[in-house]
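[job 4471] stage=fold_predict status=RUNNING
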Amino acid sequence: MDIRKTEGNAAPKDVFVIGCGRWGTFLAWYLHQIGHRVSLYGRKGSANLQQLSETGKNAYLTLPEGVRLSTALEEAAAAEYLVISVSSQSLRTVCGQLAQADLRNKTVVLCMKGLEVSSGKRLSQVAEETLHGSNRIAVWLGPGHVQDFLKGIPNCMVIDSSSESAKEELISAFSGDLIRFYYGTDPVGNEIGAAAKNVIGIAAGMLDGLDCSTLKGALMSRGSKEIGRLIAALGGAEHSAYGLCHLGDYEATLFSEHSQNRRYGEAVVTGNSYEKLAEGAHTVKALRRLGELHGVELPICESVYQILYGGKQPRLILEQLFNRSLKSEF
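[job 4471] inference complete, writing structure tokens
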């Protein structure tokens, strides 16, 4: 597959991708395809890494020969850019391990969507307080599924950071015909929005499982309003909830057959098992905590939480959610 870099891109960089799951492996594939020198890290004993080592592929793609596999996290010191794609609850541990290598003056790109449950912190906050202060932290967010990208279906995504220079460099270095990047201007709103859309995705899957998919329109309009209020309370711009990282990601999360959060929500209400990672199941705990701390009512998040962790009947809870107010849309 030919996915060229866009005209005017920066020179090839040494990139160290941490995490060899579905998304991390795709990122290594993509970054190599647009001309970078890529190493892909996985833990010793990782089943994903073992499969890549033995067969050169996973269930989604064949890894290019030019991508070097690594089990030594300290090798990140030789890279200019570190791209991290691990579960959100593992990020602090990974950053702690990187901190032991005394990494400095790196550009660290977080390619995951979630919040730290134990603290309610955004993932960039976790990285900033764990890694050396000389490192620039950025987030890579927005819609896109590995399966669609590998078919050559393009999409737009977002790079955001408190460092303007980091945004400019990364957008120049990482843009290609397959992925075009927008400049993020609200790290708080974009990170909260990106994390929260996974919870809305679980709710959408629950509606699918209950044969109530027609209510997704109401879910979308109410969900973006609900998350916008929380973003504003946290110091972000409320309108970021209507941008590419939240509302703009609804198609990929609330409707796609590839959405793990939607499929997880559907499995919950139909009584089926679902083993793949659904970040929204963790994120809803953090959002509920943030809502309580900042006095923001989050009825959709609360409904998902009560179904997943409160032992409440899904159909009853969702009926109550959509019957909340006859006087006001929200």
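[job 4471] summary: The radius of gyration is 20 Å.
[job 4471] exit 0
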